[in-house]
Amino acid sequence: QVHLVESGGGLVQAGGSLRLSCEAAGRIFSINVMGWFRQAPGKQRELVATMSSAGSTSYADSVKGRFAISRDNDKNTVYLQMNSLKPEDTALYYCNIKLRSGMLPSDSYWGQGTQVTVSS
Asked: Are the C-beta atoms of residues 116 and 10 closer than 8 Å to each other?
């Protein structure tokens, strides 16, 4: 079995920074894409950033230049460095990792979510 553990959310003033972490644990054979999504109250879940196993990244337009995704393959961990935070970044942030567990086909796993609240 595989589970993801997120950490790093919290309350911060506008202009501040936070760093989210998400570690995949369990029977992991290989990891492909790692990413972050967020969902604000009353809104649909949206993609924030992704990073492939080769290191290529993509970002939502709303976070480009402020957020940076990175990964530590030895630790099966993905990070999201969030700078210059704005009140509109307030949301529940979820990590998503596509991986193979044992000899099973690749599947998508979700973290439990971590709250990020930015005050004005």
From this structure: yes
